[in-house]
Design brief:
Layout: H1 7-10, H2 12-29, E1 43-48, H3 54-65, E2 69-74, H4 86-94, E3 100-105, H5 110-114, E4 121-127, H6 133-146, E5 157-161, H7 168-179, E6 183-187, E7 201-202, E8 214-217, H8 233-240, H9 244-249, E9 255-257, H10 280-299
Parallel strand pairs: 1-2, 1-3, 3-4, 5-6, 5-8, 6-7, 8-9
Helix pairs in contact: 2-6, 2-10, 3-10, 6-7, 6-10
Bound molecules: phosphoric acid mono(formamide)ester.
């Protein structure tokens, strides 16, 4: 695998291999010294044109735990402010010697464009409304770990709730959960759905809340909305928010997930720290292992663990 840009491009076999590899990385992360020499001599550059807390910091942590060198490009203090183009920015950084770019950009398709301008591997850390494949991978890993579903998601009922229209997380999760065999239902008002979807849709959270294994709440992306798509946030919460009453109706084993950052009081109208099924902090923790797996797959010994002592702790 040269790039990691979308779940569709990656395919089911590679997704499953990455999830297995993430198990090895999670084991590394539990060690007292969670650092291995696997990517010594490699350089990973984070290029974020949009804000991020989880994705940027977990990629940085993942690269460091694998002993890669890291570079961080901050658009606000870069020559982009003087008008430098995206292409010139990528080619300039590539000229310094970079093995992988981790790119987040507000425009869909930028990871594919960037791959034409450099020989380095490209990892998509979120492009516009299109794709956020490492989020989907960490979401699959979290479900698999929490519900002990190592062989796939056959029969698993997952409801993805909220602003699907603007959500690259939803698009990648629908593909990834579907590849693993889950039954995905979208729960949203028509105004927050894309023009076409290929999974079932219901218009009220109350229609599914009693009978799901995973409740995946999406963030209301107010910064991407150019028009009023819901009458009010209060009404949105009434129909689609996780309220204490709805939380009490979820099956006992059900997981509650959110990609972050959360709008408390909107889609999350209950304190998730009080819900035993909430795995939102586990999602963040698992993001490091999953991103280590992606970096190792692209830059390490070809995804195999048999060459040398790549995952042996440093002495
Ligand atoms: N889930 C997610 O992508 O979060 P950040 O925007 O903080 O990276």
């Amino acid at each position: 695998m040269k790039h990691f840009r979308s779940i569709d491009e990656t395919g089911a076999d590679s997704v499953l291999r990455l999830l297995d590899l993430a198990d090895h990385m999670a084991e590394v992360n539990r060690r007292p010294n969670p650092k291995v020499p696997a990517l010594r001599g490699k350089t990973v550059c984070n290029v974020f044109f949009e804000d991020s807390t989880r994705t940027r910091l977990s990629f940085e942590t993942a690269a460091k735990r694998l002993s890669a060198d890291t570079m961080t490009f901050s658009v606000g203090t870069s020559s982009v402010k003087k008008g430098e183009s995206l292409r010139d920015t990528i080619e300039t950084i590539a000229a310094m010697g970079v093995d992988a770019f981790v790119i987040r950009h507000g425009s869909s398709g930028v990871p594919w464009q960037a791959a034409q301008w450099t020989n380095a591997s490209i990892i998509n850390a979120g492009d516009g409304w299109h794709s956020h494949p490492t989020q989907a991978l960490l979401d699959c890993y979290t479900i698999r770990s929490a519900l002990n579903r190592t062989t796939g998601f056959d029969g698993l009922r997952i409801a993805i709730v909220g602003d699907v229209k603007h959500s690259r997380v939803a698009r990648s999760d629908i593909r990834a959960f579907g590849l693993l065999g889950a039954d995905v239902t979208l729960v949203a008002p028509r105004t927050l759905l894309p023009p076409s979807v290929d999974v079932p849709v219901v218009a009220e959270l109350d229609e599914v809340i009693d009978d799901i294994d995973v409740l995946y709440l999406l963030r209301m992306q107010r910064e991407r909305m150019t028009e009023s798509l819901v009458p009010s946030l209060r009404e949105y919460t009434t129909r689609f928010g996780l309220t204490p009453e709805r939380a009490s109706r979820l099956p006992e084993h059900a997981l509650i997930m959110h990609p972050g950052p959360m709008n408390r009081g909107v889609e999350m109208a209950v304190d998730p720290s009080e819900l035993p099924g909430a795995v939102i902090t586990q999602q963040v923790t698992n993001g490091i292992a999953v991103r280590m797996a992606v970096l190792f797959e692209l830059l390490g010994s070809g995804g195999g663990l048999g060459s040398g002592n790549d995952l042996e702790s440093e002495g």
